[in-house]
Amino acid sequence: MLLEVCIEDIAGLMAAVEGGGDRIELCSALAVGGLTPSAGLMAAAASMPVPAYAIIRPRAGSFVYSADELAIMKRDIDAARHTGLAGVVLGASLPDGRLDFDALAALAAHAEGLGTTLHRAFDLVPDIGEAVEVAISLGFERILTSGGAKTAAEGVAALEQAITIAAGRISIMPGSGVNIATIGQLWPRLTISEVHSSCAVTTAETDERLLTLGFSTVSARHTDAATVRALKAYFA
After folding, report:
1. CATH assignment of the domain containing 101
2. What share of the chain is helix, strand, coil (3-state, %, to 5)?
3. Nearest Cα to 124, choosing from 147, 101, 142, 154?
């Protein structure tokens, strides 16, 4: 089982590698599902001994993008390629939740030569079968999805449906709320070869000054090397 670890800072990157993560998803702002990471974090990840994919998401909120936003996303794909990353994580929606074929086609073409993952924009689609076929037609390697639910464990039936439709033509990678306590609800029930997890622990902010000035939140989650190691060991 390949374990992809999503991280949002250099400490998380180091913890993911130390714990034995097999692939990294590079993000910023994981609290809102992940935004495009900085060029500096991309460069740091490119020097690590495991492959890293950068999410290309210019803002929080919907995955319906303007022409200006798509132009920015193409520049961010260029940055990922320039720093030597293995791939990028893409997604784009129409207002009704269907995948935006034209936008995704343009982004995937711009990312030619890089690996590509379709992200959880997939979890908004009204028709799983149609969305799986779109992802396959555009050459994505995998779909990261929680089965349209808050967590992958809650969406296991839809994940099973997506896997059946995919029929080995594309990898379905469960993500969201995947941890040592929930993985047993997904595997071995699901025929999967990779999973996605933050492998994070929650820490409290104790500096009242940072809280008062709005520089921090009361608590935060951070990727933990021991948690990565434990999840990897589950599949041994």
Report:
1. 3.20.20.380
2. 40, 20, 40
3. 147
